[in-house]
Amino acid sequence: MQHQKIGMMTLQCKGQLLDLSQPVVMGILNTTPDSFYDGGRYTDTEAAFLRAEQMIREGATIIDVGGASSRPGSAIVDEATEIERVVPVIEAIKRAYPTQIISVDTWRAGVAKAAVQAGAAMVNDISAGDMDPKLLDTVAELGVPYVLMHIKGTPQTMQSAPEYTDITTEVLDFLIAKVHILRQKGIKDIVIDPGFGFGKTIAHNYTLLKTMDQLQQVLQLPLLAGVSRKSMIYKLLNCTPEETLPATSALHLFALQKGAQILRVHDVAAARDVITLFELVKSEK
After folding, report:
1. What is the pLDDT of residues 18-27, one digit of tens each?
2. Distance, C-alpha 194 to centroid of its chain
3. CATH of domain 22-283
């Protein structure tokens, strides 16, 4: 059990040890024209690099670079386009900040390989290895941490009336089975992501948020929460994604209380502040 507990607290990122004994921030860097919140803002390499630099200054431990939108109904881009979007950005960040940990947000083996060769040290996959049969073997070969996310369907279909009998149990069963496959393939460092908004209604998302500590208790793996500015907030509150920062911060605090060790966010400074206050209150006897 002690070994598992230690494993929960560290990730081996291509020779760099990422310490998760305190929660960290993963800053979202979408180099896409169509992402739901910041699509089109960082489509050229210089704009993306400046955004990464800002997030690093604000305290992002990980920069998550994505070249293909996964919002509901998003169009699938080809592999060459995705590589073209992410590789120059990753290279630029690593040149300026050699010790910065970068993850690549992709479900494609070819993109994962090109990104890691360019300097990424983690693969964040929305598909749990189901959209490209080569991905998991590629991640194993690359020897980098893997973010395993629950999804029901694909980005094109996932929000058409998703149903569960017991969402927490079904997500947990899915993750248990997938972790077993990852271990068999030799993937050592695994982070679990409940997949908020990926094949779930608003009610499903909040049930899962309330119970996600159960996922960690069973799996004994680091937990990533990706709720930032999502429709589970803005549709519920009847506002725009731009107006959701206070509510996002509230959910980040709740996610930390439920065991999240990585917050995947659009607003790094605000998330860092939430973590600082959470750690302070938690430590006060």
Report:
1. 999 999 999 9
2. 10
3. 3.20.20.20
